[in-house]
Structures are given as C-alpha cells and as structure tokens.
C-alpha cells in the first residue's frame, strides 16, 4: 500500500469530528438543542467531504502528486458515512424514531425527498466502490460514478431549501461545487496546468 | 393567579445572617459560618430581583427600569407544571437575524447594540403620534411578570418569564382613530451594530416588520416586554422593547422595536414577504397545519438532551385557546396560517 501514513492521517482527521461532536453533546456543550446541531453539522460535514473528494482529481492534475487519488475512495466513503450518521441522527433526534412520520415527510417535503435521492445515489456509489465492482462494471463504472456530481447538485439543493434568510454560506459551497464541475469539462480539464514539473512527495 | 413556589434553593428569612453577626463579620470570618454568610451576600446586594431565577447574569439596567421594577406584579400569568427554561438557554439560543443566522450569533454579536438612549416613534392612525424617549414612553405603565410558553416556527419551544405591560394599555394611551385596523411594528435598522444587516446575501429586506390585527393586539395576552427573568431584556432577546404574542409562532414577537404604526391596511410582514407559502400573516401556533418543510404537531421543549429528548405535542394556539380562539371564529385557519 502506498502512502500508508498519509492514508491513516486522513482517516483519523475525518474520524475525529463526529467523535468530538458526540463528546460535546454528551458534555452539554452544543447548547439546548444538541440533536439539531448534530444533524446540521453532519449534513454540512458530508457536503464538505463530497467537495473535498471531488477536488482530489483536479488537485492531482495540478500538482502531479498521486497521493490525492490514493485517498479519493476513502474520502468518498467517509462522505457516505457522514450521510448515514446525518440520517440516523435525524431519525433519532428530530423524528424520535416515529417511522410513520418518516413516511409523511418522505411524501410531502421536497427537501427531504431531494435529500433521500442524494442518499440513494451515494449508497449506489458506496456499494460499487470496491475493486470487484470496478472490474465487473468496467466502462460503465466510470459513468456511474459521475453520479457524484448529480449528488452534489441534490445536496446543494437540499441545503438551499434549509437556509432561507442568508445565502452567504450556501453561495460559498455552491461556487466551489460549480468550479469543480467546470474543471471536469473536457476542454478545461485538458488545460489544467501542472504547477510543479515533477514533484517529489511532501508527505511520507 | 399568583402562585409563589418556594424553591429549595431559596433563602429563608431565618437564613439571613443576623445584623450583629454581620457587623462583627471580621471576627467570625474563618469560622465555618463564613461560607454560609458569603453565600447569602449577593442576595441582599441585588435586592432579590434577579435572584428570583437561578444563574441569571446581572445586566446594566437603565434607571427607568430599575425604578419601575420594585412595583412589578410578579407571576401575573403563569404556566401550570411546566419548568421555566434555564436563563442560559433562553439567552444563548436565539433567532435574531440582525445579528447573524446561527442560534449563537445573537448572544455573540448583540453586545454592540446601543439600547440607551432609545426612542420609539408612534405614528399612523393615532390621535397622539410622536417620537418618545423610551423612559417617557414607559411612564404610564405598571410592569407585570408574564410566564409564557414560546413556540418557535422551527418546532422548538421554551417557557420564559417576561416582564412587560399589556399592548392594549399602549393602544389606550395613543388613541387609535376609527381608520386603524392593524398595528405594524418595525425593528431598528442599524448596519453598524447589526452585522446581519451588512450581509450582501441576506434575503431579508431590512428593517424587520411585523404586525397584528387590532383586535389581536387588544387581547390581554399580547404584551410589550422590557425584561425577563427578573431583569431588563438582554440585547439578544430584543432589548429594550419587544412584542410577545404567546399564541403565535415566535417570529411574530418582533424585537428591538423603534416604530409602532396604526394602519388601515394589513402590513406586509418580513417572513411573509420572503416565503408566503411557509409563513403567513397570522402565524398562529397550530398543530394541524404543517410547515411545508416539517410537521408542527410536535415540538422540542428546550433543553432537549441528546439522550433524553424532551419532545411534546404542540397545543392549539400554544395552549392559549381559551383566551384567543374567539378571535378567529369563522376564519379558515388552513388558508390563513
């Protein structure tokens, strides 16, 4: 395995946040409505991780360092894990495990429907993220995993429906997402300059 | 309805250190009495008002407030068997978008708001229009404590001991003309002290506007508040003057009011202008009419812990049906949400 310490480092850095938030909730440091705070933070965390995951390929092209690609699958799976936690805390702390209410929400609330579609998309990508699926699906695997950009769109729409009064934060994430998408357009993707001629790895 | 509930933490008359002991305290300090005596000192110092509630941070009350406070009618309206929300939560979990959209932003940023001097404009269809300094504006009114449920449209709720006076008393004072059918309120607009108003991405067209039908405003439950938890309002809770209408969602209870107008047309209120499908003019608490994005049938009574969630059923008109339901007979509350 290449770059073992880099991989483990990324693993630990992403793992630490949910543990920290859970600890804060335990310690009453998240205010009087910790369930809502956890749901929000996990959701935003998943969006950030999706953006980071999609940023790996352009970064690799820009710097020539293969380490970015090495952690791409891991980051994608982390995004899925955050979404699973986001959903679980929604079910536990907002719905209070009232499953009949979940049925109502899924039928009636557009932003919940969009979020659920995004989750299904991520689920498909997570299930097919292993080498076996890559071999089996061959060319269609790549096509399937372009779904990540559709999921990003769904996630941003899901968030847009929630922030109604001030779009500043949303605009930041949406611009980064749009930039990443534009960078993948073939005419632009070919022109991404290599910043360093042949970069020696900075991490071990 | 005055129900004096003695808390186990309250000091009894008999707990008060005898004067002789107090005067000779230098001699007795160091004895075990010292800790006890010190524990009681702040109780005398603050005249026992803020000390009605535990863990209340003392503020710097304007002098008109301190002069009026001793005559306050405590517990004029109360809730039955419902715990009052801790002061810390009521002051650190706020929606006051002028100071930012996060729940903690108002507590962090509202310190910059200058509430003294403050003036209130009364205009429109009134016999006595004018611009009043807040201390003059407040002169005619006796303060009352009203312990009300507060139900936010976001499906959380609190119980808050407000200090204020009935809105109807103000209306009597300013003499609405026969043309007045609605009352319109306006929050301060001051981008220097209100960072939320500086945001270029805000969808709110400042200043914040709210309003009531005149008969709603005359209902005895509607009050203008100047204090809470036995002290003046903290800035993040809408100092120095705010509306409290407990049978409506919290966003109707407009904060930091600078202008009160009596008008003949229904005012265009802030949230109704941004999202008319989500927030109506009436905004009565109603468990049978959902918000388009979530159910209003239940609420999280804060603090609601992660491992012991405090979820309860939302009551029609937030539990004030008896007092306000008659205002809406014949009105389709599904359409007029």
Q: How is this structure best summarized?
A:
The complex is a heterodimer of chains A (204) and B (337). By secondary structure, chain A is an all-alpha fold.
Overall geometry of chain A: globular
Helix content of chain A: over 70%
CATH architecture of chain B: Alpha-Beta Complex
Query: Oligomer, anyone?
Result: heterodimer
Uncertain regions of chain B: pLDDT < 50 for 5+ in a row? 32-36, 38-48
* Intertermini distance of chain B: 31 Å
Radius of gyration of chain A: 18 Å
Strand content of chain B: 15-25%
Number of helices of chain A: 11
Largest contact between chains: A-B, 30 and 34 residues
Order of helices and strands of chain A: HHHHHHHHHHH
- Biggest sheet statistics of chain B: 8 strands, mixed
Query: Mind telling me the CATH superfamily name of chain B?
Result: Oxidoreductase, molybdopterin-binding domain
Cα radius of gyration of chain B in angstroms: 21 Å
Let me know the number of strands of chain B.
13
Q: How does the major sheet of chain A shape up?
A: none
> H/E series of chain B, N to C?
HHHHEHHEEHEEHEEHEEEEHEEH
Query: Which structural class best describes the helix and strand composition of chain B?
Result: alpha+beta
N-to-C CA distance of chain A: 12 Å
Q: How many separate domains make up the residues of chain A?
A: 1
List the domain count of chain B as a whole number. 1
């Amino acid at each position: 395995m290449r770059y073992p310490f880099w991989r483990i480092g990324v693993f630990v850095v992403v793992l630490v946040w949910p543990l920290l938030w859970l600890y804060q909730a335990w310690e009453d440091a998240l205010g009087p409505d910790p369930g809502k705070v956890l749901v929000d933070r996990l959701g935003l965390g998943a969006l950030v991780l999706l953006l980071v995951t999609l940023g790996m390929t352009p970064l690799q092209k820009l710097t020539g360092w293969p380490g970015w690609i090495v952690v791409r699958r891991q980051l994608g799976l982390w995004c899925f894990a955050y979404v699973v936690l986001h959903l679980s805390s929604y079910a536990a702390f907002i719905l209070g495990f009232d499953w009949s209410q979940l049925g109502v929400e899924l039928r009636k609330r557009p932003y919940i429907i969009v979020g659920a579609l995004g989750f299904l998309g991520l689920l498909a990508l997570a299930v097919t993220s292993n080498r076996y699926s890559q071999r089996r699906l061959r060319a269609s695997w790549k096509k399937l995993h372009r779904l990540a950009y559709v999921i990003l769109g769904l996630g941003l729409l899901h968030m847009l429906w929630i922030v109604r009064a001030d779009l500043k934060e949303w605009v930041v994430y949406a611009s980064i997402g749009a930039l990443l998408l534009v960078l993948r357009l073939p005419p632009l993707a070919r022109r991404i300059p290599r910043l360093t001629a042949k970069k020696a790895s900075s991490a071990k | 309805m005055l129900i004096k509930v003695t808390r186990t933490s309250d000091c009894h008359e008999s707990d008060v250190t005898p004067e002789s002991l107090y005067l000779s305290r230098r001699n007795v300090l160091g004895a075990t009495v010292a800790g006890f005596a010190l524990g009681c000192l702040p109780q005398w110092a603050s005249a026992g008002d803020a000390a009605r509630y535990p863990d209340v941070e003392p503020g710097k009350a304007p002098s008109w407030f301190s002069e009026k406070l001793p005559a306050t009618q405590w517990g004029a309206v109360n809730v039955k068997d419902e715990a009052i929300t801790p002061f810390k939560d009521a002051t650190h979990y706020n929606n006051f978008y002028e100071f930012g959209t996060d729940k903690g932003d108002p507590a962090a940023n509202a310190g910059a708001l200058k509430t003294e001097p403050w003036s209130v404009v009364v205009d429109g269809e009134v016999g006595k229009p004018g611009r009043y300094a807040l201390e003059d504006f407040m002169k005619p009114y006796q303060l009352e404590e009203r312990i009300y449920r507060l139900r936010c449209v976001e499906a959380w709720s609190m119980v808050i001991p407000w200090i204020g006076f009935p809105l109807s008393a103000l209306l009597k004072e300013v003499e609405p003309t026969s043309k007045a059918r609605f009352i319109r309120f306006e929050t301060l607009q001051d981008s220097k002290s209100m960072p939320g108003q500086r945001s270029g991405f805000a969808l709110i067209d400042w200043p914040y506007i709210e309003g009531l039908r005149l008969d709603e405003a005359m209902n005895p439950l509607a009050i203008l508040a100047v204090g809470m938890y036995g002290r003046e309002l903290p800035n993040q809770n809408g100092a120095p003057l705010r509306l409290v209408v407990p049978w409506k969602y919290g966003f109707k209870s407009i904060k930091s009011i600078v202008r009160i107008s009596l008008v003949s047309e229904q005012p265009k209120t802030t949230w109704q202008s941004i999202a008319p499908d989500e927030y109506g003019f009436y905004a009565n608490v109603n468990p049978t009419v959902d918000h388009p994005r979530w159910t209003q049938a239940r609420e999280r009574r804060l603090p609601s812990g992660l491992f012991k969630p405090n979820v309860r059923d939302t009551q029609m008109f937030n539990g004030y049906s008896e007092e306000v339901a008659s205002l809406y007979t014949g009105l389709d509350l599904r359409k007029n949400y």
